[in-house]
């Protein structure tokens, strides 16, 4: 065995404790598989005395996590604090500058500062790794950077926020309205302190922006991810979609188009016959399409102590084995600025709206769609025991621009009650 | 860029041509992602003049593929000849002995000689890689060796022969009998020259034995894989299974048990709600279960020019990037001999048989099962417009030993017509 690899762990929440457990319980296995002992030198967390169910008394303690970044007895800093700025960022920068490798589960940090941090890591000849930041235990970063490296990636898609998928599948399976299931998820502790990170699609958007950078060799550009949350999805939408053979998923899609890099995270209709449509509960799924390999689907737990710690430790073991690659699969300086695609690729759309029950209302809607260049595939006034008439329209392929235009015109046309719902029907 | 990585390719069939195409078409991308030029120095195949649709005139030609293994201008030998002995083995041995890295898609070779070849590679400080040997384009070797390396693997399962899955799903979807679909598959060119390699489960068994070695740190032991082909699966079995909510799949399962290493490749009933049960046509799927990560599912094309070449080139790119690991994820000398589990773990079983239509026949069968310690969960005499009475039995959990014992007793009991069908119902 060569010299041991020594970790400094910042953050002893669920994932941090999971990492400590793997190091403590599987020490022989880790050594056999990497040829090195993997040990923990020091840790830092909010409370030193809290009972976490594991013995951390053998590790040095730092009140200030940033101090882990300059300790002589630390080779790899494991950053599990989270947050796009503040202590997490300071720690990662300090560690890289001091020649430590960094393993992190922090998608927000990398989505906002990934380009600069990747450059910093490469300037210092060290690894900055983040398998745990995307889709929990699924080895998706490794699959994209290494396993499918010979492919020109044509599209990356995924359901990457377990909480949203829990909410949507629970609505579908139990027939419950959004608000009720949202409260249920809150009580179960599934939601972030700021729930909008989950249901607003932000967390999943962070993840998508990292996959985009690897897939297309572009700079991380989270700001250009078009975000739409799930909070406007009603139980009616879910039922109507199911009647047509679709499930509604918070789906991330990234693809390079003639108009630039398209990145969007939004509720979409996906065929219930596709693995994406069948995904239940908190499970994550990433679909990668390459010019040679075709479609690869990866599925697994998107969060939780074990799965996330598994991903963190895979990164640590790669470092122990001497595997070192640029953060996004190619040198940071070669990542290009891709113009964001303002208009997304065409797709059929699902439109649901409520019309005033008066003569000519439907004709007005149809005319607006026609004027916007959107042609109707199916139209159904689907029940009628109310003062108003709910209408479901499925369009032929239309651009997001044309749909947006039509939605704007609906606002002022005098026959639409409330906000129409518009969801892409994704081809998978 | 550092020095180029130079390939010698043996075998210019579908996969070989796919590899040549990637090297020719994606040269810039490969260089950007690996930091090195990847070039082809020499090739060898059965015919030099055959039109393969790619220009190979710039590459040196070897009539004898083994000669590629000692060429000074070759850093990596890509072995795409196939076969467990003969030229393929001679080439791989020659190449490793001459300090070349080897990338191969040859599951038969590794299933039979993997232990010795892994040792030879390590003795020479070179890589022996085989991502393309298992599940085509799916990065399953990388996921097991690296992505899930922090896990004690508890079970590996998979549908890893596309031809068998094509036959079974075609039978299910079209309601056609085995023989008819088998002929269809033969005409479509889906079958190996010796079809028993496919339908006898041998090819898939080869693959399973490689996954076992990585997962459990054991020597490759193909001889101990319990094989059962799909040729006895009837359309009746498929329909009866579907009525109960199952699909029949040629499923490989490897797990370490208290009684030794269990490796089996056999048609099983799997729930149609699980991704394995939903797998259609030639697609492959591997399910990996680890103590931390839980269940990871990987799905993709199991064969074909693009997917297999994608996997070959991923290995080549890893070598170009300087990533070097032992063949089975840990040094060959640390792989242990695991006793094969003679009796597999208990499971419910599906039994279908035809009984003579006479009093007491059913009682006799029930008595035999009881005597063998097998208890019945469901029993159904499922139609009766024949001279004999077909019977479907679903058992409670029973060991393969007890089921085998019961099947032997059925033979001599005087009421069973023909051979009963016994299929495990796999818990997934």
Question: What does this protein look like?
Answer:
Chain A is α/β, with parallel strands linked by helices and 428 residues long. Chain A folds into three domains: 5-133, Rossmann fold (3-Layer(aba) Sandwich), CATH 3.40.50; 140-302 and 330-334, 2-Layer Sandwich (Dihydrodipicolinate Reductase, domain 2), CATH 3.30.360; 349-425, ACT domain (Alpha-Beta Plaits, 2-Layer Sandwich), CATH 3.30.70. Chain A has 14 helices and 16 strands. Chain A has helices spanning 14-25, 27-34, 86-97, 107-123, 140-147, 162-174, 178-187, 196-199, 202-216, 235-243, 275-278, 305-320, 361-371, 400-411, and strands at residues 5-10, 38-44, 60-61, 76-79, 101-104, 128-129, 153-159, 226-227, 246-257, 260-271, 283-290, 294-301, 349-356, 376-381, 388-395, 416-425. In chain A, strands 7, 8, 9, 10, 11, 12, 13, 14, 15 and 16 form a ten-stranded mixed β-sheet that branches. In chain A, strands 3-2-1-4-5-6 form a six-stranded parallel β-sheet, sandwiched between helices. Chain A is elongated and about 80 Å long. Chain A starts with a strand and ends with a strand. The relative contact order of chain A is 0.13. The model of chain A has no long low-confidence stretch (mean pLDDT 95). β12 of chain A pairs antiparallel with β12 (294-301) of chain B.
The quaternary state of the protein chains shown equals homodimer
Please report the two chains with the greatest interface, counting residues with C-beta closer than 8 angstroms to the partner's C-beta: A-B, 55 and 55 residues
CATH architecture of the largest domain in chain A: 2-Layer Sandwich
Give the low-confidence spans of chain A: none
**Which value, in Å, is the CA radius of gyration of chain A?**
24 Å
% residues in beta strands of chain A: 15-25%
What would you call the shape of chain A?
Answer: elongated
**Mean of residue pLDDT values of chain A:** 95
* N-to-C CA distance of chain A: 47 Å
Task: Please tally the β strands of chain A and state the result.
Answer: 16
- Classify the fold: give the CATH topology of the largest domain in chain A: Dihydrodipicolinate Reductase, domain 2
Which H/E pattern describes the elements of chain A? EHHEEEHEHEHEHHHHEHEEHEEHEHEEHE
The description of the largest β-sheet of chain A is:
10 strands, mixed
User: How would you name the CATH homologous superfamily of the largest domain in chain A?
Assistant: Dihydrodipicolinate Reductase, domain 2
CATH top level of the largest domain in chain A is Alpha Beta
Structural class of chain A: alpha/beta
The helical percent of chain A reads 25-40%
Number of domains of chain A: 3
Output the number of helix runs of chain A: 14
